[in-house]
Amino acid sequence: MELQQYLKNLTPPKGPIDIILDTDAYNEIDDQFAISYMVKNTEKFRVKGICAAPFLNQKSVSPADGMKKSYDEILKLLTFMGKEELIPLVHRGSETYLPDETTPVNSDAADFMAETAKSYTAENPLYIVAIGAITNVASAILKNPAMAETCVFVWLGGHGVHIPNAATEFNMVQDIAGARVLLGCGAPVVLLPCFGVVDHVTTSKQELEYWLLGKNDLCTYLCENTVQEAESYAAGKPWTRVIWDITAVAWLLNENDRFMCDKLISSPIPEYDKHYVTETNRHFTKYVWHINRDALFEDLFRVLAE
After folding, report:
1. Residue 54, domain CATH
2. Once rounded to an integer, what is the mean pLDDT over residues 38-63?
3. Were 140 and a residue from 72, 110, 132, 278 both cysteine, which residue would form a disulfide, CB within 3.0 to 4.6 Å?
């Protein structure tokens, strides 16, 4: 890809685009906001697929269990939105993480992304947004290396480059091999770091109830699900919850920097000891360094409540 086209693909796109979202939807309460924000932005996004990503924490007994629960959560959200016609576009993802940097994990999601990307070009790219472990996406790239030319990847993963052990972030640390595939393949990648950048994208019970509760079935579910989760550990105390996954979708809506600021950096290298190495001769990555939280939430609540 010519440098001019590469840099163009690292700017928020104008007009409608084709998009695939890769999400560990059951892992947290914020993936649900991101999925809904994407699906309900019908003028901007032509949804080509939603893929379930693996995860392993207290909400799952294995990466496979996390993926299956995420798949079911995606279906639940589409039903709340009355978007059952999108259910055939939902794909089951990987049940394990990459064993190394050359071996893909077979899954419906990886095959779907690898095959779908063949219909696109650098001038007319497919946008793949990832808000979980990057296994499905990395596996697709290993299956179809030409995706580095035909796709733009937007990933919420890793912490800020100024933070020690930046690769300890949950999405990244689950599959560092996958992260190295994505950040080393030469594709246009937009990186949204968690701690130190998007970690102030938080909301409270009072704000959610004021803007969402009772607006529609989806809004009520998002509000009640978030409140229930937070009050399971913070009942009777002040709390806010991050819903930072929405920032990955919002970057694609970021005309004139209305939601965030970004810059070009050399693509960072996540090492297996969980820190970043930077080499100045590597290809560029677009790195988000600031979020206009209030402007983003104003748009989010408007879209969800429509």
Report:
1. 3.90.245.10
2. 97
3. 110
* pLDDT tens-digit readout, 198-208: 999 999 999 99
User: Does any domain span residue 221?
Assistant: no
What token pair was written down for 221? 């579910």
Q: What gap in Å lies between CA 213 and CA 216, rounded to an integer? A: 8
Domain-located, residue 235 = no
Q: Look at residue 1 and tell me whether its pLDDT is greater than 90.
A: no
Segment 33-43 shows an average pLDDT of 97
Residue where the block lists tokens 């695939």: 20
Phi, psi values for residue 290, rounded to 5°: -155, 140
The answer to whether 108 touches 62, Cβ cutoff 8 Å, is no
H or E segment to which residue 151 belongs: strand 151-156
Question: What is the distance between the alpha carbons of residues 37 and 78, in angstroms, rounded to a whole number?
Answer: 12
| Confidence at 246, pLDDT banded by 50, 70, 90 | very high
Largest CA distance in the chain: 56
Residue 46 belongs to a domain: yes
DSSP character at residue 250? H
Contacts 24+ apart (CB under 8 A), 228-236: 229/29, 230/205, 231/205
**What is the pLDDT at residue 136?**
98
Count of domains in the chain?
Answer: 1
Q: What is the pTM of this model?
A: 0.97
Q: Phi and psi dihedrals of 152, rounded to 5?
A: -120, 130
**What residues contact 50, with CB distance under 8 A and at least 6 apart?**
20, 21, 22, 23, 35, 74, 86, 89, 90, 91
